[in-house]
Amino acid sequence: MSVQLGDDVRSGEIVTDRGTFAGLSCTPATRSLPRGNVLLIPGFTGSKDDFAELLPLLASAGWAAAAYDQRGQFESVGGPDDDYSLSGFAADAVQVSAAVFGRDERVHLVGHSFGGLVAATAAVEHEHAWASLTLMCSGPGGLQGDQARDLLRAAEMATGQGLEALYRASAARDTQLGVEPPPAEIEEFLHRRYIANSPDGLAAIASLLDSAKTDLGNASVDFPLAGFENFMDAAGLTKFNRALAARVAVYQEKWGDALNALSGSFFDLNGALSLGVYHVFGSGSGDQLNDFFIPQNQTGDVRIAHPSYAADIVAGDDRIGKATPRTAVASLNGLSGDRDVWVYTSSTAPVPIIRNEELILIYTECKIQVSAFPDAIVALNRIRTAHNLPAYASAITKEALLTEMLNQRRFSLYCEGHRWIDLRRYGRLNELPIDRPGDDVWTKFPVPVTEQP
Fold it and tell me: For residues 55 and 270, what is the distance between their CA atoms, to the nearest angstrom?
């Protein structure tokens, strides 16, 4: 992060019918008309300055981009009687967008963290204003566990003792946890920004961040959408919400929070492994087919399983059925394989968003991480025996159990989008095969060619 604005980034006030907001903007230097307009909304205790280095990058790619401090954030004024509801923040976004880009422009909306909740609300309540919605680091629901308690305590401290005391307490906690302090220039900016926030605004945002799950629980929901069978009412959507929250918590290595989320989800150690929520496909008018499906033994357009899948799987494991033998080897550019991927077996086969088998493996991972090894082994054996394998009989150590858990995730969640992420978060990307000279394993998702400047 830099506290210095680039020469091509402009700062100024954005005057709207709902008040005046501090903003930053950047426009393409070499295009008479931009590719489009982008509005970025910062998160809790953040500000427009979080996007200061991103704005020129968007402009260099041909986009007109702007960011602003939300009501009560940093350099945007917020009073104790202001509208700090999500609908209020969303209405602010609409007014800011109109002031910067014009009321007739449909704008690409980007929200970070709490700004994502605002952006999502704006997209629902003012859909005419937006061309697209992008959420950055915005979770699937309200904060849980220690995060929720710490946030509400911070809100009480902000209104009771003041932002200076809250900032010092936060800095002391970071020091206690061994967090390396930023350079002095950055530290001065972060301090100045933090204490400039409206205490009333911060307290209101803290309450909003804790409220998403409560909103679902109090709602009357009619959700007739294919793929959500068993989850179409408020209780079902809350279970789906908690399942996604458990996945996010595991990615954040918050094992206790993940277990808490699982307790409110549809996790069932003895339930059907396939129970869950799915993307569905169809062949009717307006429907979309599952492009991952390719018939077996095809030539030309094929989808081949890496040979290591069959080589590494234990004899008798029924998940070998996800990679079926071909009648002839398929080869291309020095790669070859003799098994087709056979996870999605028709053009209308559903793709899991999240299902019980993953939740059982999340439970397993959390229990290993908190050293509750007997519970972890029970869950591992639920997966193993479901796929015709004997009970786990190897070493009962954290490292051995983590390796076994990752192995079960590999075969249970094959072609569901988890393997690379799992190995990356455990620092094991070196375990992925490299088949040709010059090939490599990505450590980050590449930027698509169509989005490169």
Answer: 50
Distance CA 322, CA 352 (A): 15
Consecutive H or E run containing 2 = none
CA 285 to each of CA 64, 228, 336, 345, 381: distance values in angstroms, whole numbers, following the listed order? 37, 21, 37, 21, 44
**DSSP strand pairing (276-279 vs 351-355):** antiparallel
Q: What is the mean pLDDT of each run of 10 residues along the chain (453 residues)?
A: 73 95 90 83 91 92 94 91 92 96 91 89 90 81 57 61 74 76 86 85 70 58 72 83 91 92 95 96 90 94 96 97 97 95 97 97 98 97 98 97 98 97 96 94 84 71
Please state, in angstroms and rounded to a whole number, the distance separating the CA atoms of residues 410 and 351. Answer: 16
Angstrom distance (rounded) from CA 364 to CA 374: 10
User: What angle (nearest 5°) sits at the alpha carbon of residue 367, between those of residues 384 and 261?
Assistant: 105
Residue 256 C-alpha from the chain's centroid? 19
Tell me the DSSP string of 173-240.
HHHHTTPPPPPHHHHHHHHHHHHHS-HHHHHHHHHHHTTHHHHHHT-------TT-TT--SHHHHHHH
Distance (Å, whole) CA 290 – CA 265: 27
Helices (H), 264-350: 307-312
CA dihedral 202, 204, 206, 211 (to 10 degrees): -170
C-alpha of 180 from chain center: 26
DSSP structure string for 111-172? EETHHHHHHHHHHHHTGGGEEEEEEES--SSS--HHHHHHHHHHHHHHHHT-HHHHHHHHHH
Select from 415, 426, 122, 121 the least CA-distant residue to 291. Answer: 415
Strand pairing partners for 135? 111
Asked if 108 and 134 count as a contact pair (C-beta separation under 8 A), the reply is: yes
Closest C-alpha among 52, 124, 72 to residue 94: 124
CA nearest to 250, candidates 370, 153, 170, 150 = 370
C-alpha span between 262 and 360 (Å, rounded): 9
Q: In whole angstroms, what is the distance from residue 448 CA to residue 148 CA?
A: 36
Strand, coil or helix: 68: strand
Rg of the chain on CA atoms, in Å: 25
| 171 burial via Cβ count (<10 Å: 0-12, 13-18, 19+) | middle
C-alpha dist (Å) from residue 272 to 76, 77, 321, 411: 51, 53, 18, 17
Residue 308 pairs with which residues in a beta bridge?
A: none
pLDDT digits (tens, 9 = 90+) for 243-291: 998 999 999 899 998 999 999 999 999 999 999 999 999 998 888 999 9
